[in-house]
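Homework-ish question, so no full write-ups if that breaks the rules, but can someone show me the predicted structure for this set?
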Amino acid sequence: MLSYAEPIRELIEQLEALPGIGPKSAQRLAFHLLAAGPERAERLARALVDVHRRIRRCEECGNWSVEALCPVCVADDRERDAICVVADAKDLMALERAGEYRGLYHVLDGLLSPVEGVGPGDLRITELLERIDRLGVSEVILATPPTVEGDATAEFLREVLGGRGMRVTRLALGLPVGADLDYADQVTVARALRGRTEMTE
Amino acid sequence: MHLRSLSLDNFRCYERARFELPPGLNVILGPNASGKTTLLEAIYLLATTTSPRTSTAGAMIRHGSTSARVTGVFERDGHEVTIRVTLGDPSGGRSSAKTIEVDGREVAGAREIIGRVQAVLFWVGELQVVKGSPGDRRRFLNAAIGQMSARYLDDLARYRRALRQRNEVLRALARGGSDGRLLAPWTHALVEAGGPITVDRAGLVEALAAEAAPLHSRLGAGAEELVVRYAPSVPLDADADVADAFYTRLEATHRREVERGSTQVGPHRDDIQLTIDGVDVRRFGSQGQQRTAALALKLAQARIAGARTATEPILLLDDCLSELDADRGAAMLDLSADREQMIVTSACCPGHLGQRLADAHVIDTTGHAAALGGCDGDAG
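A: Not a homework solution, just the prediction itself:
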């Protein structure tokens, strides 16, 4: 059987190893890049190399950053008595886009998952505790995702943070804003009911 | 609710076929291996997004084709809903792909179908509910409750995930490579998902017990009394919180779970006890008693689903009208006469059922299925 020339095969293999890319998509992308010409390919290659050369972890919160400290950590208008704990930098950006939160962040760099061999030592928990003590924060917001692993990680952190005397909160689960109850799926409605809150004055 | 039309493209032995189905009784007639059960399978697939026969999407694709498609137009309270399931990839990609569309819009999965369309199927595999392992009975409970509650399916998925993670920590504890603090968050996750599962199952089994007993005696069992009882791994007590009970049981079995490297109590260890006049049907019931008990459970499930969701399920009954089962078949048709739609298969014209089938709509599968080697051959 005829197969692709070796360089094409190598490109397809490399693309296929990326998350969310199956054999079909890898093939399509490879031929697109081939047809787009060398300039396009060089721009892409340069971006790939650049991102590794120029981006590093923020020494404080673990966010990806060009400088030693990320823009959130150097900003002088952020409140320094609250830390919002997220699983990864993507989630940090999602919270930033909401524009509501003015405190600091801490990137855990993953979630507990014994099955995948991820334990507390693989997450940036020691760094978190050190920052909490150093900054003397009054609130830690656990913003891990509402998955089994996200909940368990939050539960673990709640236990670890217990006794330190600050407020520990978890992001609320609930109905999409502005939508009719009618349109929310059953699971969302059921979990919103479980997590219902007291109405106070 | 009822199914108005069913179209199949490259689904098992059907290259291309379309059937119109009126409300009421539909009888699918045809010789063995002519694709009768396949029609029920297709309808069940539309209602639940899963097949009762296989967990591999590719197995339902006609030999020599890269994808299969099943389309059903359902009617409920005068509203029409079209559900389409595409298996495999028309352009030759993954044969395990499964796409679900509701009224032409692609949806994420079973969650979106639940509450819109309901079907309850009785086929030969259903005997496992009586004869099989506790796992078979849990599967029955999961399918029955899952069809009524997306929240239950979510809890179930979370429970399984938490269980896997927790067992991994237990194995590490046994090796001395972990500490108890690491177990706690997974215990919490397990209880949080497992508690509601136990409560939901208890509620369903209670309803099943009440519905199934009278159905069972009307199915020809006469004075024999069918008793259905939930045997939960975490005992439910009206005075105690299920979460507390779960924690207590986990603590009590902690030494054993570490030794064995697996969680010893929880919904994954549940069972249902079925007895007829006090005798365990699973072990000591005759073939006929087991069949009647299984059928009673299924009919009870259909009634409960209809009452709880206000969507009367379509009853799908595979091969229940055979000559051997004359009395039971007749009783079953009488019991289900008030259902909105019932679709049954039969290998021959069941003359012994006479008048009961006079008004039935007959679908003849002869000539529809373009199979070379037959259609029902891979039913196992």
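Now go work out the reasoning yourself. Hint: Residues 172-201 of chain A form one domain.
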